[in-house]
Amino acid sequence: IVGHFTPTTQLAKYCQNQGIFIHGIHPPVVPEGSSRLRASITYNISYDDLDYCVESFKCGARKFGIL
């Protein structure tokens, strides 16, 4: 859960630009102030792929003031 619409959207776009399939979920699907990211992971993902996703996510979260 990120919280607000804008940083959620920014982080989702950042991750997508890094080749990560992730998207934002916003109101009215979730309560106001609880926008979040949803990732889809395939069965053949490697630990290296997961490490890349986590590092990309952290970098983007810092860039947009989430972390």
Report on the structure:
There is one protein chain. Helix content is 45%, strand content 12%. With 67 residues, the chain is an alpha+beta fold. The chain has a two-stranded antiparallel sheet. The model has no long low-confidence stretch (mean pLDDT 94).
Topology:
Blueprint: H1 5-17, E1 22-25, E2 36-39, H2 47-63
Antiparallel strand pairs: 1-2
Helix pairs in contact: 1-2
Q: Which labels suit this protein?
A:
single chain; 67 residues
Distance between the first and last residues' Cα: 12 Å
Structure classification: alpha+beta
Number of strands: 2
Low-pLDDT ranges:
none
Mean pLDDT: 94
The global form is globular
Total DSSP helices? 2
Question: Major sheet: size, sense and barrel closure?
Answer: 2 strands, antiparallel
**Helix-strand string:** HEEH
Q: Numbering strands along the chain, what is their spatial order in the largest sheet?
A: 1-2
Helix fraction, binned, reads 40-55%
What is the CA-atom radius of gyration, in angstroms? 12 Å
